[in-house]
Amino acid sequence: MTVTPRQATVDDVADWWANGICRMEPGVVELRGIPVQELIGHRGLVSTIWLMVRGSSPTTAEAALLEAAMVASVDHGPQAPSIAIARMTATCGVGMNNAIASGVNALGDSHGGAGQQCVELLSDIVARESAGAALDAATTEVVAEYRARDPYLPGFGHRFHPVDPRRDPLLGLVDEAVSAGTVEGRHVAAARAVETELNRGRRKPVPMNIDGATAVIYAELGFPPELARGLFVLSRSVGILAHAWEETNSGRRNEGPMPTSILPTYR
């Protein structure tokens, strides 16, 4: 028996990319149901990011806390692979979009994924605490489980900074937000408990780093782990853009990862 395929209708085509984010038709652009003209000049970029990904509007205090996290993550210099790749790409004459995309594409589990992983870690501790475990006991269990898989704990320690200079300002803002009732404070408590657990019996401390501090903020604000990585990518894109633009204007061509006077070791 031959089955005749049903012909697609206009509604079928219109439903193909049905979404609840943007309504666009002649003379109309609405973002999450809000006309864009009502956002222009009245809504900041970070608040709009929240609106777009969450479908709701943050309070002024929530937006300020999110902005602090995103500002703190914009750049960490050309030794970061994403920045170095963007700079090298910019000297190849491919244009800004390619340079930025090349830098962003270097952000993965090892470089750029620690924030997401730390949100997962802290959320695991908070979930066990909610189930009745004491915070210290939950932390000890989770840290042991994570370190059994990998000695590196996402969000803690830094290869350059004895103490990450971004840690204390961010945690200070979180403490203020907890006092003001903006956030609950359970994830920041879990993060500090992890620090205590990691540093037990150590002479050289392993403090929270930028990934841990921003993970605390993203988790306290209710962002799921995957969005923590997405927000980091948006933030770091600012640094990638700045470095790609500076390199574009340097006049240098075809810059590699090391000076031409140094040749790689041949084995």
UniProtKB/TrEMBL annotation:
| The enzyme's E.C. designation | 2.3.3.16
Pathway this chain belongs to: Carbohydrate metabolism; tricarboxylic acid cycle
InterPro entries (UniProt xref):
Citrate_synth-like_lrg_a-sub (IPR016142), Citrate_synth-like_sm_a-sub (IPR016143), Citrate_synthase (IPR002020), Citrate_synthase_sf (IPR036969)
Q: Name one GO molecular function term.
A: citrate synthase activity
GO BP, one example?
tricarboxylic acid cycle
Which PANTHER family does this entry report, sorted A to Z?
CITRATE SYNTHASE (PTHR11739), CITRATE SYNTHASE, PEROXISOMAL (PTHR11739:SF4)
Its name, as the record gives it, is: citrate synthase (unknown stereospecificity)
Q: What is the lineage of its organism?
A: Bacteria, Bacillati, Actinomycetota, Actinomycetes, Pseudonocardiales
